[in-house]
Amino acid sequence: MKAPAIELKRLTRYFGSRPVVRDLDFCVPEGKVTALLGLNGAGKTTTIRILMGLLSPTRGAAMTLGQDATKMSTSTRARIGYLVEGHFLYPSMRVRQCESFQRVGYSQWDDSMFREIVDHFGIDPDAKVSTLSRGQRAGVSLGLVLAPDPELLVLDDPALGLDPVSRRALNETLIEFAGGGRRTVLLSTHLLDDVERIADRVAVMVGGRLKVDASLESFRDRVTFFTVPAGATSDASDAKPFAAVPGLIEARRLGGAWQLAVADADQETMASLSRVAGDAVTRNDTTFSDAVLAYLTRERGDGSFLVSGRQASGSVSTS
Amino acid sequence: MNALIKKEFGDVLRWTPLGMIGAFVAAWLIWPTQNSHSYAMEESLISQLGLAAGVIAVALGLLQSLFDTRNDSRGYLLHRPWRHSQIFWAKVIAGFMAYVLTLTPAVIATAMYLGWKGIDWLPVGAGQVIPFCCYAPFVFVLHPMVIWIANRNASWTGTRLLPAVGVVGAVLLVWAGIESLDAGQMLVGTGVLVVAIGLAVPLTLWASRHAFTSESYLPPASSAQNFCRSNVVLLAISGVVLYTTVAAFVIESLPKEARVYNQYMVALGEQDEWVQVRTTHAASNWNSMTTATRPIDGKAEFESTKQLPLSKSGTYLGTALGQDRGQWLNRFSNLGSFESDSTAGGTLTLTRDGDRILAYNYNGLQGVITPDGFSPIASKSTGGFSGKVTVLTLSRTARKNFSPNDNPVLMDDAGLYQWDASGKSVKRLLAGDFQAAGLSLGATSDASFFWTISGTTLTRYDLELRPSSEETLPFVSEIVEMTYSYQLPLISLHAAETFEVAPVRQNETVRIVRADDGRYGLVRSDNGRDSQYRMLSGDGSQSLASVDLPIPAVPISEARLGGAIPPILGFIAGVATLLGSVQVPASHWLWILALIQGLVAAVAVWWITGTRGFSQRSRIAWVVTSTMLGIGTLIGIVAIYPKLICEACPRCDQQRRVDREACEHCSQAWDAPTDDGIEIREQEPNLAPAMAEIS
């Protein structure tokens, strides 16, 4: 039995009277890449700030590498690489100065790794941070975070604003770093393709709560999509009849049909669908992105920008 | 830590030229170009360049804090294997280095300018920057104050800025303490400085460090991370200072009833008997005065009378103890301007510079005055006065102050001298250590006498004109009455008679009155209310009689301040009044209002502490504190203790705190969130969570 690298227990955080994260129970296993997904405002960054010891929980607890995050020691911090949202670096520093500033306090620092990453992103070590592109800043940030060879890597939206080439470079670096199961990565992102490429596990936060915490394969297997022709229901424009379907994540109108996403579909699901639409129900292939989007769309409760205003009742989800 | 200091210093370094320019302009504005502007350079530097220093400290604090309150910048800075307190101290040290660097050019330029001008042109010197250099490090306390404010767990529209009230108040208090010391109030000044510097600096640093290392994580209301002793003390004080200032401002802005102002004294009456005199200044015009007297025993009402003659109300003797001889802050001190027929412009301004006097006209330094004489070239002057020399205040009568416009009498620890303004010479009039001296002007020239007190001997001197004098002996003429000044001739003093008296005490006033029959009386007073008096006789056998004069009534409008000041001060004022140990007694309304304020504060604090989940012991402690410190304590409590966030408990339906695991009313734990039926959770095999289930 192995202890998790990160463990959250009933973690709750309020800002004012608004709960941003509520009763979060979540473990990040050691040696895996776990993707933390959710819409903006779902509580991902707040959760990461708490487990990095930068924000106190309102109640509940967060353990990072076996230590209470609110009392994180300097030695524990040294074992964690944390890439903050937006690839923050001091604009007045040069890349070389960033390195010499960052390395202070770390017992180990891999110069060659830092140089390799910087080279990989095509960055001049004497360049000023303020002159770097967003992708280059991401490269420097990644180099600074990886050079101390951390056990745990926490990345808060590392691909934010990156061009495709930089994104690929970032993903390659992460795959190389996390390969072999020696290191743990918690990755918060909106880029589902990247997640599918590099993550072992996926966690989806909806409205401050954790709805999904599973391996990528398991998640994909347990979400099922069905198509129901609009004419098969009593009211073609009303999604309400589907609300009774057990495990319904989302029902959305797509052209002349309803597309339903269902979690853990079973006999009861099928029976319920038959009651609403008879034999017109067909099962579709599930992609990872569609499955995630079903959860995320559920939170926002909207569809196409073109039809969202006209079809207020065109989407439904159970709650 | 050096790397972080270097980084923090590098961050603010590029802004320092802006600060340097600001500091230089602030200093340049007070560089003296005229004699009259140059005396209080030390004070001017402390106040005006000190203000610029404060702005620079605040600006540096903002530069080093505001960016790091952003989540990305803060996360990047704090997530490294350093203790967060190390990061805080690195910021403070780097800020101090930048602060010193920013102020240095302005200070050096000022010192160079003052040194370059030197005393030949104006009474200035490079050393005048030293008091500012001692004061400026304390002003830097505003830098950690800004870090404290930036990292506080409070709203900008709420109490976030409250620490500024206490810390800026402490900076002003230090300035007041320096002024008090300079004015010779050693006990008050030292006490103020010890409290302001000894408490404000460490408390601000610790509160700031606590805010940076704990409060900035926005801990919940129940967390001990919200509190440290330093921030509790400083925020409570800040709340009290804020309330007192605002309430006093409002109260002082309210319309007031016009106040009749009465002064009481002991003097000789028409029949040369001792009487109590009341001088009433009319409410509508304080220049309109009426005089009333009553017997010295106070057993009759005051009756209006005509104004007493100058001689019967008497002349105060200037006491060395009360002179400006105790001042130390400013190197140069203006002793006044005196006519001089032999000087271009006709006037010489005397400036004390340590043990010598510098004489200036509009052309610059004309010479140096010492007991050895007058030297036109400063470097060739010899000798020096004993201790600090001052121009003696002569002829300060109970009704009017007259002053000589030429030939002033100088006083030092070794004697009395007269400066011959036209002949430019100094003559020692008397040798000895005198504690008090004065000139009582009579209605005629032969009724003017000089008085001194040395130890237990009061001596009356006859005045005699020196041969070189072109003036007549002074007396109160119509011109003197009108201009308040007289021509003091060059005089010699001859002891006429002596009297045995008690030594002069600190802050004591001594007055000589003269009866119609030529006898003299002595009136002494410590606080203006109690007066001791006797007619003077040669053997000193007659002891002083004593009388308590009436207490001037304080109108209720002034007692309203009892609603503003901390009740404990009102209580102290009340007790001091009852014991009769204050010069201006407090109206009983002052402490009644203070008491009411204390009670209102206690009730309000009892209520508010109940809504914020205080323990019973804590509530009682705060109620006691608020009874003493007043309504301002409420502001402090609101600032110290975050507002509770509550939700309805599903079991008992009462509002429960969201930051506690169990309901404080029914001990119910939080219910697990209800699943929507869409949850997909699959724990990794072989995973052993370390934490037990939270209940």
Automatic annotation (TrEMBL), chain A:
Descriptive protein name: Putative ABC transporter ATP-binding protein YbhF
Gene3D superfamilies on file: P-loop containing nucleotide triphosphate hydrolases (3.40.50.300)
InterPro entries xrefs: AAA+_ATPase (IPR003593), ABC_transporter-like_ATP-bd (IPR003439), P-loop_NTPase (IPR027417)
Superkingdom, natural source: Bacteria
Single GO MF annotation: ATP hydrolysis activity
UniProtKB keywords: ATP-binding, Nucleotide-binding, Transport
PANTHER family per UniProt: ABC TRANSPORTER RELATED, ABC TRANSPORTER, ATP-BINDING PROTEIN
ABC transporter domain ranges (all copies): 6-232
CDD domains listed in its UniProt record: ABC_DR_subfamily_A
Family as reported in the entry's similarity comment: Belongs to the ABC transporter superfamily.
TrEMBL record, chain B:
Keyword Disulfide bond among UniProt keywords: no
Segments passing through the bilayer: 12-31, 46-67, 88-116, 128-149, 161-178, 184-207, 232-251, 589-608, 620-641
Record carries keyword Transmembrane: yes
Alphabetized UniProt keyword annotations: Membrane, Transmembrane, Transmembrane helix
Name under which the protein is recorded: Uncharacterized protein
Source organism phylogeny: Bacteria, Pseudomonadati, Planctomycetota, Planctomycetia, Pirellulales
